[in-house]
């Protein structure tokens, strides 16, 4: 297919830049300094099918752009012969190793004058790096060698931007282009992807489309695609943050594609709080947020006109935010406050950091990413005990959840007095319990009563806090059920040997790295500890908790975090037994904000993923995030 001309054909040009050579060609119209920063010439790709040199090259814009800040360092318009010289008009000291773009662009006719206001523009690029006083580019094997911009360099520039490559990964691309060929050795780019995107660039230019606009990252297929004839690719916000935890008054960068250019009607929010300031880089691939002094964690939201886009949860140090749920007791897949999770109770995280939530009266297990995206996992909404695949299995008032090392999920089926196991694919089976009661022995004949909390150790043993029988049960890998601690059917508060120690409505259990088992002993308002040998029960908290403990979890330092549901606070108990309040004012409600002023309403279970503590807030139908 022949190339179209630039006003009537596409951008059929390669830009040859010799740096820092001083050619004896007329410079462009911009002559602010005596020594050019960059010089070069625009040449047609194929004079047999391309327009005349003057048609293509004359009046094309060439610019040097800082890829990190988005600042245009220098710009010019090419001469009738295609030559240009770029001069910097501001003090400019290139940063070693930082990526820069050299971009050639020209208006497309598309039925009118290509130089009219608002005309479409086709762009081609190469990446540049400054090293030892010379420039290095994608087609330059050594600093100071000839620099070329064309289809192949544009392809690498597109991939680099949309894949959000690090500066080091971009630098590894230097010198990898020779003509239309790409040497992928030592780079992070798959040569198959290069060929695919090269074809997209070629097709875009042949169709009078700007490749930097129409090519986009498709998150559903995790690949690059194009939208020819449909305008720019969609706005997409990636689930990546830098730094991963923000601070009040600090900055955080979110990546994506086609992020919004500033307009009077554009607003950016984190949670329900507008950000103090924001900017987008030249590539529209990075959104830099400046948070206010009263900011708190929340889902990123961008509004522009009647359009709204949602991004990842942004944790803010020293605050509480809402990850998912909107207060309505309805089931909705989606992100942040668009998601619905009625009656959230149990909470656990798999080895990949994905959260799973037990919806008690909703009879389901929901799946939730730490960026705030909620989807269905197991349960049909029926109050049954059917085993089978995810679309068939039922769970009845699920409470505590826990994962083993193989990412099998254990579920306390509270209302039916059963323990269930769900594989990563969603296949559900019953591993203990038959009818309500208290009986040890093989799983097929065992009896449980109100299993509430669960933990699993590295050997495949499962520990269950059983409120109805006031004991801690153990299920071995071969399916035997036995009493691990407590006197069955007897409640009390006695420490001592496990066979004679007593509990009162134990609600949850958690293991530390040494194998000690901690118990939230709700009826006794205590945190109990069973040593790793399974021989002795002691009381951990030296001073009383603020309220009755329900869910508990541990951090890497051995501190225990407790959801005191009746007083709506999260408390911390050190290994030495000192009790303090981590988050919550004690006033029931939904207010996000600083740790001491945030409100909870019947918090139940909690779990750490990284530095963030996730909490099921049962009466508000929300999942909250505490960032200490």
Q: How many separate helices?
A: 5
Radius of gyration: 31 Å
Contiguous low-pLDDT stretches (5 residues minimum) are 1-34, 43-58, 108-119
Give the overall form.
elongated
Give an overview of the whole structure.
Strand 33 and strand 34 (462-466) form a beta hairpin. The two termini are 61 Å apart. Mean pLDDT is 85; it is low at 1-34, 43-58 and 108-119. Helix 2 crosses helix 4 (191-206). The chain is built from 5 helices and 49 strands. A 5-stranded antiparallel sheet has the order 4-3-6-7-8. A 5-stranded antiparallel sheet has the order 46-22-49-48-47, with no helix packed on it. Strands 23-27-26-25-24 form a 5-stranded antiparallel sheet, with no helix packed on it. The longest helix is centred in the first third of the chain and has 16 residues, at 191-206. With 628 residues, the protein is mostly beta strands.
Layout of strands and helices, then pairs:
Layout: E1 13-18, E2 38-44, H1 53-57, E3 61-66, E4 72-77, E5 83-86, E6 100-107, E7 121-131, E8 134-137, E9 147-149, H2 151-162, H3 167-171, E10 177-178, E11 181-182, H4 191-206, H5 211-214, E12 215-218, E13 223-226, E14 236-242, E15 251-257, E16 266-270, E17 273-274, E18 277-280, E19 286-290, E20 298-304, E21 307-314, E22 319-324, E23 334-335, E24 344-349, E25 355-359, E26 364-368, E27 373-378, E28 398-403, E29 409-413, E30 418-422, E31 428-432, E32 441-442, E33 451-456, E34 462-466, E35 471-475, E36 480-485, E37 496-497, E38 506-511, E39 517-521, E40 526-530, E41 536-539, E42 549-554, E43 560-564, E44 569-573, E45 579-583, E46 593-594, E47 603-609, E48 612-617, E49 622-627
Antiparallel strand pairs: 1-2, 1-9, 2-5, 3-4, 3-6, 6-7, 7-8, 10-11, 12-13, 14-15, 15-19, 16-17, 16-20, 18-19, 20-21, 22-46, 22-49, 23-27, 24-25, 25-26, 26-27, 28-29, 29-30, 30-31, 32-36, 33-34, 34-35, 35-36, 37-41, 38-39, 39-40, 40-41, 42-43, 43-44, 44-45, 47-48, 48-49
